[in-house]
UniProtKB/TrEMBL annotation:
Limits of the Protein kinase domain: 76-343
A GO-annotated cellular component: spindle
Active site: D216
PROSITE patterns linked to this entry: PROTEIN_KINASE_DOM, PROTEIN_KINASE_ST
Gene this chain is encoded by: AURKB
Protein name as catalogued: non-specific serine/threonine protein kinase
Reactions catalysed, as given in the entry: L-threonyl-[protein] + ATP = O-phospho-L-threonyl-[protein] + ADP + H(+); L-seryl-[protein] + ATP = O-phospho-L-seryl-[protein] + ADP + H(+)
Domain of life of the native organism: Eukaryota
GO molecular function list: ATP binding; protein serine/threonine kinase activity
Keyword check for Kinase: yes
Region of interest called Disordered, as start-end residue ranges on this chain: 1-21, 68-95
Subcellular location: Cytoplasm, Cytoskeleton, Spindle
EC number: 2.7.11.1
Length: 360
């Protein structure tokens, strides 16, 4: 059993804080969402849901939501080193989702058109966010995720808040976490793994095109839609970095690339390393550099001490080996991940109906 980083005090392993079940009646839900629809124009004009710690009482900080292609987006430094904890979002925000799958209702999109979607109302308590010091991380997650629209990225439609809580309106992923399905089956077959790799490559190409680096791709941060399509979630460790070069250590121990461990600057190619580790874990059942101690794990990552069991197909070994390169510039580009012969031979990607339209 490998040692993992100690979990933060507000998160359970591999998950977020267990939610308190709230099951409103259908009538109250209908009235609630009608009220939300009326309040959204007002909410959009509100300032940050967090009080300023420096200004007078009642003063609030701006959330600074801006277009995804705005080169003036601020960079958001992560902590210089992550707290020690197991494999889950380091510094994750305490989520308390309503247990019903939200409400199916018309949602205004661009141009006044109406689109039927199912939303999840995610409730976060300000006291917990401030206590754990993750306000900055939540701001970053909202700033980035609200402007990403891709069939394999979980949508953040809007947010609003009151004195005690912050409410996020999220796309509902009915099949839950990829990690839970991996736990049940232990490993995935070639078809499912190759499909996930194609979906990830496409979604990350979209993110990188918008100068967004996720930096924490792993089974816990991947959700599944109605047809089993992948949904990248949890952008709390991602960053909008116009220069695409950073020098902060974040993410999960087993998925950390050599450049982060060695304290070097990193760019979007950290995501290539992460999907290589993920591909290995999906096929084998554990990450490639998992060891009995932190130091041994670090050593194996830096040395790229990669060993394949006989059960891993040669095509998958070729793909993983080309992604897990010590030199970031030598890692296989995302476009070539999608075009890799093993991925093309086994992927059965299914796009939801909304994806038939062009991706922004």
């Amino acid at each position: 059993m490998s040692q993992r980083l100690d979990q933060p005090p507000f998160s359970s392993p591999r998950s977020v804080l267990p939610a308190r079940s709230v099951r409103p009646s259908p009538l109250s839900l209908s009235l609630f969402f009608l009220l939300l629809t009326a309040l959204f124009p007002l909410c959009a004009q509100l300032s940050s849901p967090f009080p300023s710690k420096d200004g007078p009482e009642g003063e609030r900080l701006p959330l600074a939501l801006r277009p995804a292609d705005d080169s003036a987006w601020p960079e958001h430094p992560a902590p210089e080193s992550p707290p020690e904890g197991p494999r889950h979002p380091i510094g994750a925000c305490p989520h308390e989702p309503l247990q019903c799958p939200a409400h199916s209702c018309p949602w205004p999109e661009g141009g006044g058109e109406q689109q039927q979607d199912t939303q999840l109302l995610n409730v976060l308590f300000k006291s917990q966010i401030e206590k754990e010091g993750v306000e900055h991380q939540l701001r970053r997650e909202i700033e980035i995720q609200a402007h990403l629209q891709h069939p394999n990225i979980l949508r953040l439609y809007n947010y609003f808040y009151d004195r005690r809580r912050i409410y996020l309106i999220l796309e509902y992923a009915p099949r839950g976490e990829l990690y839970k399905e991996l736990q049940k089956s232990r490993t995935f077959d070639e078809q499912r793994t190759a499909t996930i790799m194609e979906e990830l490559a496409d979604a990350l190409m979209y993110c990188h095109g918008k100068k967004v680096i996720h930096r924490d791709i792993k089974p816990e941060n991947l959700l599944l839609g109605l047809q089993g399509e992948l949904k990248i979630a949890d952008f709390g460790w991602s960053v909008h970095a116009p220069s695409l070069r950073r020098k902060t250590m974040c993410g999960t121990l087993d998925y950390l690339p050599p450049e982060m461990i060695e304290g070097r600057t990193h760019n979007e190619k950290v995501d290539l390393w992460c999907i290589g580790v993920l591909c290995y874990e999906l096929l084998v059942g554990n990450p490639p550099f998992e060891s009995a101690s932190h130091n041994e794990t670090y050593r194996r990552i830096v040395k790229v001490d990669l060993k394949f069991p006989a059960s891993v197909p040669m095509g998958a070994q070729d793909l993983i080996s080309k992604l897990l390169k010590h030199n970031p510039s030598e890692r296989l580009p995302l476009a070539q991940v999608s075009a890799h012969p093993w991925v093309q031979a086994h992927s059965r990607r299914v796009l939801p109906p909304s994806a038939l339209q062009s991706v922004p």
